[in-house]
Amino acid sequence: MKKGLIMEGGAMRGLFSSGVTDVLMENGVRFDGGVGTSAGAAFGCNYKSGQIGRALRYNKEYCDDERYVSARSFFKTGNLYSEDFCYHQIPETLDKFDFDTFNKDPMEFYVTCTNIETGLAVHHRHDEENEDMGTFLEWVRASCAMPLLEQIVEIDGLKLLDGGVGDSVPIRFMEEIGYDRNVVILTQPLTYVKKKIKYGLLARKVYKEYPKLTEAMLDRHEKYNETYSYIREKELKGDLFVIRPPRSLNISITNKPEEIQRVYDIGRNEGLKCLDALKEFLS
């Protein structure tokens, strides 16, 4: 049996997942492998590094700092979230990411991005022996790079953007590589149905050189909703354990620490509520 953890993205909704995973870490719940998409990767990597509370801490500390996320950063660099501040200053100096522990932990960790030339997902496995922290964080940055709001990230000849376009919840990927006892953390409630984007014309104009990307963006809601249905079907059969918010989290990009804490606390509450059932499922 291989135990897998799948973490959906969703920008600040990812703080719900952080609340859940902090509870799991505090209670010694371990997995053989994990995969994160967008915020699921950016916050979820702290699971492998064992840094309880880190995602909550730096988001509350810097959410109102224009060096972290701001219109100024977007108009100056093309990135709503500052590349230097988010992926260098914070993890290297201000709230250090424990890359040594991350590497030593046996848990496999995958980051989901979207190849803009194919419109398909790329699931990158971190290579503990040959990949330094800077390269790993570039993959995380690519996974979080929201179309139209962030610059394209190039790694190893690949042009990459937000993993949510190609594979918002990579449950099938984990199953395909042999994980057969999986836990999924979603950031939308059970009743959620994703709608088609309203900025299709703008996307086609901005990414006119990458038609496969715009096709994937325009079709994303269909793939997303089908994946949610697949997850629900497996959950009802008892083949999958799902943790989701009980209601819409109603949070977007915010500069309010109390909102970040609110969403995190909902995640903690859900993690605590399901802890015994989760342990039984994994055993």
Please describe what this structure looks like.
This protein is 49% helix and 14% strand. It has helices at 14-26, 39-42, 45-49, 54-62, 71-77, 83-94, 99-104, 133-144, 163-167, 171-176, 200-206, 211-237, 257-282, and strands spanning 3-7, 33-37, 108-115, 120-125, 153-155, 158-162, 181-185, 240-243. Strands 1, 2, 3, 4, 5, 6, 7 and 8 form an 8-stranded mixed β-sheet that branches. Helix 1 (14-26) crosses helix 13 and helix 4 (54-62) runs antiparallel to helix 13 (257-282). The longest helix has 27 residues, at 211-237.
End-to-end gap: 10 Å
Oligomer: single chain
Number of helices in the DSSP assignment: 13
Shape: globular
Helix-strand topology string = EHEHHHHHHEEHEEHHEHHEH
Mean pLDDT: 97
What is the structural class?
A: alpha/beta
Percentage of residues in strands? 5-15%
Helix content: 40-55%
Radius of gyration: 18 Å
SS elements, strand count: 8
* Uncertain residue segments: none
Question: For the report, how would you describe the main beta sheet?
Answer: 8 strands, mixed
